[in-house]
Recover the amino acids of this structure.
């Protein structure tokens, strides 16, 4: 097992893939490896990318990955999006684009389902980010569909959060109002080739202006045409600038602390749930307690007290 961790740290793609699978299955071996990998992690720039379905996130990520490779950076991509081209179901053009990336040994792409956490990120995402980080990736990109809890979770992991907007969507403006405004470090307005682009830019600019009036810093807005690779170098520069600006600040340290806090909570939650509901000894006792609750011999709170006192023993 120590050997697997060593191979991951050398950037071996097969070892990385195997390690991720072990982590997804929450196997005890994975735990041992994760302990080794932690000392080597923390260097990657983690970029969270969110936005509505069809905004062009996956296309944009392919282009960004290509740009970062040109700059000599190694890139890891995690797509938490069931409709993502990384997990199939893409148009032919998109697939060819992805395939090109997939043959580069310094790009690692993994798609993940949302199983595990209701509407949010699967718990294993923390592990996968840490694995890719420890494997020597300079950039780790996490793609999520901007609905509900997922993007709130992703900002806990990401050093820089990029929100992708598109023209002609009342939707994107709505998500801004619903609070995405607070999470964006950078905006990309994609599909600048589409009608309505000028208007969307103007709308977002005035919203950003409004926030800036409250004394906060202006969030950068970068127009792009992901499909044609236009605006991508500027976007990469802006993302890099955000990280540089953050580094060494109190805010950055606090943010990293919150990431490890969320990870810690997730690990404990997973272990506890597994112990209580999967392990035979507990499972039988839980069934007994449920019977008693049914027969009004016990109330759920007393039953929970009993289970917890067992766990804490
Ligand atoms: N017109 C136009 N279409 C784009 C652009 N970028 C992506 N698309 C298309 O938008 C669709 C959705 O893209 P995808 O990357 O899968 O979006 P995602 O769901 O946000 O990951 C695809 O058909 C892309 O080819 C762009 O800059 N301009
Ligand atoms: Mg996608």
């Amino acid at each position: 097992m120590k050997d697997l961790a060593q191979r991951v740290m050398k950037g071996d793609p097969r070892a990385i893939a195997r390690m991720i699978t072990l982590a997804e299955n929450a196997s005890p071996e994975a735990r041992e490896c994760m302990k080794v990998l932690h000392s080597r992690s923390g260097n990657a720039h983690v970029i969270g990318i969110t936005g509505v379905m069809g905004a062009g996130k996956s296309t944009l990520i392919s282009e960004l990955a290509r740009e970062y490779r040109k700059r000599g950076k190694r890139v890891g991509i995690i797509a938490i999006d069931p409709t993502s081209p990384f997990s199939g179901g893409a148009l032919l053009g998109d697939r060819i684009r992805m395939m090109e990336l997939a043959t580069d040994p310094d790009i690692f792409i993994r798609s993940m389902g949302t199983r595990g956490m209701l509407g949010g990120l699967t718990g294993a995402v923390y592990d996968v980010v840490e694995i890719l980080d420890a494997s020597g990736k300079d950039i780790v990109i996490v793609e999520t569909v901007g609905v509900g809890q997922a993007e709130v979770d992703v900002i806990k992991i990401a050093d820089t959060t990029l929100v992708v907007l598109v023209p002609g969507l009342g939707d994107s403006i709505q998500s801004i109002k619903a609070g995405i405004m607070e999470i964006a470090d950078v905006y990309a307005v994609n599909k600048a080739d589409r009608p309505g682009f000028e208007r969307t830019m103007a709308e977002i600019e005035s919203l950003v202006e409004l926030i800036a009036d409250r004394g906060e810093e202006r969030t950068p807005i970068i127009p792009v045409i992901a499909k044609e690779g236009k605006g991508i170098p500027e976007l990469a520069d802006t993302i890099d600038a955000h990280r540089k600006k953050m580094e060494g600040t109190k805010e950055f340290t606090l943010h990293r602390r919150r990431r490890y806090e969320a990870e810690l909570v997730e690990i404990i939650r997973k272990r506890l749930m597994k112990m209580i509901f999967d392990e035979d000894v507990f499972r039988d006792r839980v069934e007994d307690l449920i019977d008693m609750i049914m027969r009004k011999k016990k109330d759920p709170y007393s039953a929970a007290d009993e289970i917890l006192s067992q766990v804490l023993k």
